[in-house]
Structures are given as structure tokens and as C-alpha cells.
UniProtKB/TrEMBL annotation:
It comes from Halalkalibaculum roseum. This is Carbonic anhydrase. It is an enzyme of class 4 (lyase). Zn(2+) binds at C42, D44, H98, C101. The gene is can. It catalyses: hydrogencarbonate + H(+) = CO2 + H2O. Pfam families: Pro_CA. Binds 1 zinc ion per subunit. Keywords: Lyase, Metal-binding, Zinc.
Length: 206
């Protein structure tokens, strides 16, 4: 049986280093969390949420799935949003896609992959909606990357029309929804200039 000794050793070294630098770090965190941000991103191993924005444990409430989808009937993501917005009262929700996303790419192909096809159907809807615009791109990689951006925009819409987000805005809670995309080639985040902070802005911009 392989008990993954290298990862467990990594963990011990990591905890030791933090304790040396900030002796009360874990004790403070164990009292509770008050993150300001909810991060919704892709499961892709190359897009680790906390690391790419250089934050620490406790700073980011995170939900990740294949191709950063927010589906209204998905109890998992809906529960995350409710808890983050209604209980933790995060101030920002960041939907972060990434260029070259395998899930987005797969949604553009006819090949059947199994269960994941059902999950990707939602991106196929976005693909069909913007098929004309996407046909203007000469290279497949450009088309994929544009659909990655459009997918972020579609998920921002889904978050903004989530009932808990709408309720928060109705109650005057400070909450802004952002659309970002990550570039695997240089490690940089691209702000898609989607920034919605009220019911009015959602109606005007989405
Ligand atoms: Zn991805």
C-alpha cells in the first residue's frame, strides 16, 4: 500500500514553516473563517485558486468544478453560493475561467466522453448561442479561447440571477460579481471587465 509519504512529509514541513513564521496562525484560523471572496474556478490542476492570487488559508472560499460551471440545479454549487453569500457574507464573487480549458474544448467536439457530456451540455448551449461570432476565428485555439471567455460571462449571469445573490442585493448587502480569465502561458489573470454590484447593474449589463 502506498501511503503517499512524500505528500504527508510536505504537509509537516509546510505546517512547521508557517508556525515558525506566525506562531498563532493555525490557532487563529481554527476559531473560524471570514473570507472576503468566493472563488468559482475550474478543477484544472494548473489553476490553483489561492496560489495565483497569492492569498493565505482563510482568505478564499472556493468552489471548483470542470469548466467553472454554475448550474441552477446543481445543489453543490448552489449550496456554496448560499453559504458564502448568506452566512459568510463575502464581498466579492470571482468567476475565473482559463484559456485552453479542456472542458470548454470538449464541449465543441462531437466525440462522446461519457457522463461528463451531460455536464458540458451547458457550455454547448453557450457555443450554439455564439456560433456565428465564433465562426469568424480562423484558428481552433482562438475559437476555444473566445468560448472560454464567453463561458465566464455566462457563469457570471448565472451567479447574478441566483436567488441568494439577488436577495443579498435586495437587502443592500455589499456584493460584487467579477469575471476573470487565467492565462496558463504566463500565469496572469485577465480581467474581462465584467463587474456587477447590484440588481440594476445586472439588468443593464447582462
Ligand atoms: Zn478548465
Amino acid at each position: 500500500m502506498n501511503k503517499l509519504p512524500s505528500l504527508l512529509e510536505n504537509n509537516r514541513n509546510w505546517a512547521k514553516q508557517i508556525k515558525e513564521e506566525r506562531p498563532d496562525f493555525f490557532e487563529n484560523l481554527s476559531q473560524g473563517q471570514q473570507p472576503e471572496y468566493l472563488w468559482i474556478g475550474c478543477s484544472d490542476s494548473r489553476v490553483p485558486a489561492t496560489e495565483i492570487v497569492d492569498l493565505a488559508p482563510g482568505d478564499l472560499f472556493v468552489h471548483r468544478n470542470i469548466a467553472n460551471q454554475i448550474v441552477h440545479s446543481d445543489l453543490n454549487s448552489q449550496s456554496v453560493i448560499q453559504y458564502a453569500v448568506s452566512v459568510l457574507k463575502v464581498k466579492h464573487i470571482i468567476i475565473c475561467g482559463h484559456y485552453g480549458c479542456g472542458g470548454v474544448k470538449a464541449s465543441m467536439q462531437e466525440e462522446r466522453l461519457g457522463l461528463i457530456d451531460n455536464w458540458l451540455l451547458h457550455i454547448k448551449d453557450t457555443f450554439r448561442k455564439y456560433e456565428e461570432e465564433l465562426s469568424n476565428y480562423e484558428f481552433e485555439s482562438e475559437k476555444v479561447n473566445r468560448l472560454c471567455e464567453l463561458n465566464v460571462k455566462a457563469q457570471v449571469e448565472n451567479v447574478c440571477y441566483n436567488p441568494f445573490v439577488q436577495q443579498a442585493w435586495n437587502d443592500g448587502q455589499s456584493l460584487t460579481v467579477h469575471g476573470w480569465i487565467y492565462n496558463l502561458e504566463d500565469g496572469l489573470l485577465n480581467n474581462l471587465d465584467i463587474c456587477i454590484g447590484s440588481l440594476k447593474e445586472a439588468k443593464e449589463n447582462l
